[in-house]
Structures are given as C-alpha cells and as structure tokens.
Amino acid sequence: MAENEDKRNDERNTTRSRAAANAKEGAAAPEAQAGEVPTQYATTYPVVTEGVHNTEFILSEANGHRSRDNAYLADPITIVAGTPLQKTAAATTDRPATYVVATTGANTQALALYSGKSVPVDGLRIAVLARDAEVNLRLINWGAMSEAEKVIGITTLATQGIICRI
Questions:
Q1: Does residue 14 have a pLDDT over 70?
Q2: Strand partners, 87
Q3: Are 101 and 143 in contact (CB under 8 A)?
Q4: Which residue has the higher pLDDT, 110 or 45?
C-alpha cells in the first residue's frame, strides 16, 4: 500500500517538475493550454451546407419498383431531387410519361427522385416517386409554393399513396 502511494507521489512530482521547466522556458503548462489555440495555428473555415442528396427524402417504398415510374421532362429544365411534378402526358411505346414541375399543390402527382439538367433536344429522363411510399416532408423541394399550396400538395400526394412524414 505504501509503495503505491510512493509511486503516485513520484508521478505528481515529475509532472510538477515538467510544468516548472516549461514555465522557465516560456511555455505554458499543458493544463494552462487546454482549450487555447495559439493564433499562428488558429484557422477559420467557411460553413459548408450540404444540399439534399438524390432519394434522401424517401423513408420507405413499396416492394420492387411499384412506387416508381420513368419520367420525361422537356428541355430546358433543371430538377432538384424531391421536386413535386405534374404528369402532362401518358407514356408511349418510345417515351415515358411526360412531366413538368408542379406549380400548385393540386397539380402535385409525383416527386423527382434524382436531380438533373436536361440535354438540348433530348430533354431529361429520370425516375419519379409516383405511388405507395413514405417521404420526409422537410426534404421536399416545394419551390415557390405558398404554405397553403404545400398543404394541398401533401393531400394530393396522399391520394397517390405518398405519405409525407415530419
């Protein structure tokens, strides 16, 4: 027991002697430096905010690909994942259903799964969430829609089986 106490006292004395030696050299003891960064090492970094990732807003989907549809968006267009879309034409044998960005909540029929930019003449082909899914309401990109239009859009999506969760 006495040996353990002697060892502890030796360790304390060694720490104190190191701190005293550092003080003589002009360096602060490690305890005094805690939480302080010398100005020559201090760096400020800009705040970087990450955008929404593709399909990040999906909480759950139906089995297989039942929740998804292929979509064609005419040129010129730039889409962000989670943007509400309106179906304007049914699919044909050589082209998927045509969609445009929904301007009102009542026109919201699907959500863009992927971000993209159209190619001149070819437009943009992406997958959309069209039915039977749960999504994170905070990650839907409503654009310039008012709060009232958003509520209508949430209700319209619910008729498609797309439930918005908070």
A1: no
A2: 99
A3: yes
A4: 110
Q: Which residues make Cβ contacts (< 8 Å) with residue 126, sequence separation at least 6?
A: 70, 71, 73, 79, 112, 113, 114, 116
Exposed / middle / buried, residue 43 (Cβ in 10 Å: 0-12, 13-18, 19+): exposed
* Both tokens assigned to 71: 């979509």
Is the distance from CB of 94 to CB of 58 less than 8 angstroms? Answer: no
Q: What are phi and psi of 95, to 5 degrees?
A: -145, 135
Alpha helix positions (H), 51-145: none
CA trace torsion 39, 41, 42, 43 (10° rounding): 140
The verdict on domain 58-165 having CATH code 2.40.300.10 is: yes
Burial class (CB in 10 A: 0-12, 13-18, 19+), 132: middle
Look at 52 and 19; give whichever has higher pLDDT.
52
Name the token pair of 51.
């955008």
How would residue 34 be classed by pLDDT, with cut points 50, 70 and 90?
low
Domain boundaries, the chain: 2-33, 58-165
**Which pTM does this prediction carry?**
0.70
